[in-house]
Amino acid sequence: MRPAYFSAVYVSALLASPALAGEAGMEPAPDPSIVVTALRSPVEQARTSATVTVLDEPAIRAQQPIALTDLLLRTPGISLTRNGGFGTATSLRIRGADASQTVMVIDGVRISDPSATGGGYGFSNLLIDDIDRVEILRGPQSILWGSDAIGGVVNVLTRRAERPLEGSVAVEAGTHDTVNAQAGIGGAGALLDWRVSGSTFSTDGISARSNGTEADGYRRTSASGTATLKVAPNLSVDLRGYWADARNEFDATSGDSLAYGLTREWTGYAGVNLALFDGRLANRFAVLQTETDRENYDPARSIRPLNFDAHGRVRRFEYQGTLRASDQVQAVFGAEREEQRMTSASPGNNRAAYALVPQSADTNSVYAELRVTPLDGLTLNGGARHDDQSRFGGNTVFTAGAVFTPNEGRTLLRASYDEGFKAPSLYQLFSLYGSAALQPEKAKGWSVGAEQTLGDKVHLSATWFNRDTRNLIDFATCPTTGSLPAACFIPGTATTRFGYYANVRRARARGLELAGRAQAGILFASGNYSWIAAEDRSPGSADLGRQLARVPRHLANVEGGVDLPQGLRASLAARYAGRTFDRAGSATVLPDYWLIDLRAQWRVTDGLTLHGRVENLADRHYETAGGYGALGRTVYLGLRSRF
Questions:
Q1: Could you report the per-residue pLDDT of 476-518, keeping only the tens digit for each?
Q2: How far, in Å, CA of 609 to CA of 611, rounded?
Q3: What span, in angstroms and rounded, lies between the C-alpha atoms of 512 and 58?
Q4: What is the DSSP letter of 488?
């Protein structure tokens, strides 16, 4: 029996080897990039019907991002709202979907916070750190990832060791007394592959409110680790962990404030991988847990500074099987159990004890997807998933798609139909404004696209998508006069409330994503443009037919530069976001804006690179959320080394 550890890195390296690049004398086919865990099993990108963007380590380092969201913004169809500088509340939207409708995955582990309003992941504390690869899977993807995957999936892989002993160090400093440092060490051997890393980030920041004068700082410390023990040629054990501790200052809605928040996140994963039948059937058994603790403090309070206390925990038990019956037939199937727990409270400015009442929801799931290549160049996929949730009951979603290439990947034609859903969050169900009658949000979408590679210098792509979402959960305000409906009373009491969560909205999003890149000698250029018509389709709504709040209809990125053989790379990049409405039901418009960045890096030796950049070169004032500031011109200098 041949060795079959089924390491993601091993499979990626295998499928990206020159042996798969085509026969000698032929026009070289594009590098067969692999979607490693975004599709929950290694699949060549040319055999996926979904729209996927893959960013490897060179592409990530060339952009020099601090936060993951800085990188994601430069890809098609993604917009961002941030209430100030680094560390403040951050909302990411894929193709106009709500911020809580994106699944975040780190090294195969779903990251979310059940105590958050929408129950999703808050991107404010996720920096680049030891990230080695990013995959962005667009469109409804609940078939494999379950709840929340309506907009798409962001899948992150951290660096893996490739030599017996190796390390890396990176440090940079810049405007607002910003310091960002990261280091890691690891090794790869016959019995054990391992890596640990740590990072620290601090900045004095800017005022979160645009009318403020007092800077709101941010500091964060994090660590991560992975280990794979190769027990036998067909048996391995994976251990993974991630931890982050952050402190962010923020302002009140009226202006400057001394308020700050503390956030602690940790994730643990333990899995066993067993390959059977000469590696054709790969089995994975795993248990995962993520925890998020959040506390907010207001030093202006005279008795108790703590004014918010929340704790969220998700525990998952997973089995996944990947069957490779032949080169033409592959299947992925599995079963999962997810247990969500939450407590939250808003203590008053007094010495009275406050209660942290636990709330919970459990979900049992089964899924399967089949991928078949009946003819050379044609791949079909289809699958289904059923979830049974302890609060709202059952839900089933389907997917189907096709991808065709007549010339070994140089031309690709894609089409897919996908469904997604989002379960009500624990906060929406059980908070002061919650409703136990909430049903899941549901989405149906389709997309068609084409890609064309000309030689190894030019790549072009175009995708059209459509998505309809119903049962969207929104906050309904109670009337101030007349008799009140039953929903305006806290359940089980005679106490009235300001409002409540209800399934009252619908939305439709459709759009076009264009992208291209080219290289001519030492010169290179790339760009993308997205037109996103994401509209409110709620019957009787005052916003019916209007673009959803904080979703720009037009997004664009462009970059051009020079890459010299001597190791010097420099580029000028620009990013555009169109005008948006600030809030639903509001006529306030946030103006459009262009941001220009200048980047350069010099590879001094094989293991040492110096880099620097100027972001927002023109010092443009702009807002992604009304009344909240954004970073002006900033300058950063740094170095990174691998040894």
A1: 889 888 888 889 998 888 889 989 999 989 999 999 999 999 9
A2: 6
A3: 27
A4: G
CA distances from 389 to 140, 193, 340, 539 (A): 19, 37, 11, 28
Amino acid at 70: D
Report d(CA 342, CA 311) in Å as an integer: 6
* Contacts of residue 88, Cβ cutoff 8 Å, sequence gap at least 6: 82, 124, 208, 216, 218, 248, 250, 628
Arithmetic mean of pLDDT, 255-264: 95
- Amino acid identity, position 527: G
Burial (CB < 10 A; 0-12, 13-18, 19+), residue 295, is middle
3-state secondary structure 10-50: HHHHHHCCHHHCCCCCCCCCCCCCEECCCCCCCEEHHHCCC
Rounded mean pLDDT, 206-234: 96
One-character DSSP codes across 368-409: EEEEEEEETTEEEEEEEEEEEETTTEEEEEEEEEEEE-SSTT
Diameter of the chain measured on Cα atoms: 81
| pLDDT tens profile 551-576 | 999 999 999 999 999 999 999 999 99
* φ, ψ of residue 442 in degrees (nearest 5): -130, 140
pLDDT of the residue at 570: 98
Q: Sorting pLDDT into bands at 50, 70 and 90, what band is 134?
A: very high
Q: Three-state SS across 243-293? A: EEEEEEECCECCECCCCEEEEEEEEEEEEEEEEECCCCEEEEEEEEEEEEE
358: three-class secondary structure by DSSP = coil
Rounded distance between C-alpha atoms, residue 403 and residue 47, angstroms: 6
| CA distance to 125, 302, 346, 350, 614, per residue, from 432 (Å) | 27, 25, 11, 20, 46
| Residue 13: CB atoms within 10 Å | 12
**Length of the chain measured in residues:** 643
What is the pLDDT, as a whole number, of residue 587? 87
Measured between alpha carbons, how far is 94 from 77 in angstroms, rounded to an integer?
6
* Helix, strand or coil, per DSSP, at residue 68: helix
Q: Between the CA of residue 550 and those of 583, 622, 626, what are the distances in Å?
A: 7, 13, 9
- Give percent of the chain with pLDDT exceeding 90: 84
3-state secondary structure of 141: coil
Tell me: pLDDT of 48 over 50. yes
d(CA 476, CA 478): 7
Check: CB of residue 335 under 8 Å from CB of residue 319: yes
Backbone angles phi, psi at 70, to 5 degrees: -60, -35
- CA dihedral angle for residue 73, residue 79, residue 85, residue 86, rounded to 10 degrees: -50
